[in-house]
Amino acid sequence: MTLPRNLLAGMALSAAMARGIAPLSAFKTAAQSVASNASTFVADADLYLPMAVNTDYFYILSLIMEGAALGSGDLHGELTGPSGATVHGGLALITSTAGANTAGVYSGSAFSAGVNGTTPTGALAFGTVSCGGTAGNLQFSWHQLTSSSTATVVEPGSALIAVTI
Predict the structure, then answer these.
(1) Which domains does the chain have, with CATH numbers?
(2) What is the pLDDT of residues 46-65, one digit of tens each?
(3) Could you give the 3-state DSSP secondary structure of residue 154?
């Protein structure tokens, strides 16, 4: 729903209007790890949001990750929407180590991100979701980019936020 051009004092704010104002959000409170898995996506236990039918969203996924040394393990993630939804996005990588060489690629709804060992590495994935006639969740799922016995960990403090556009 599109908000009225002008909200006036005393005007009733409907639930549909409020959905257009308040962001949807999911916050990770516990670490989740994946080891020796470079092929099967695992749904993140915390990072998912409900999507309404015939609605467009802008999302931001903020990840804090740790794991094996850069190039060993890393992270391959994807955001999937409800049946019939179209998901597009981009990726920015951030690390707390000056000069660390992290790599990131985003294609459609999937991305890969370098993890810099036990130094917390950050990634911001962002984009749009266009939902069709089926409601469901925008779900972050992931596995290791390269199989490693050292677990890749998505840390508490990671978050997924979406607003209607």
Answers:
(1) 22-164 (2.60.120.760)
(2) 999 999 999 999 999 999 99
(3) strand
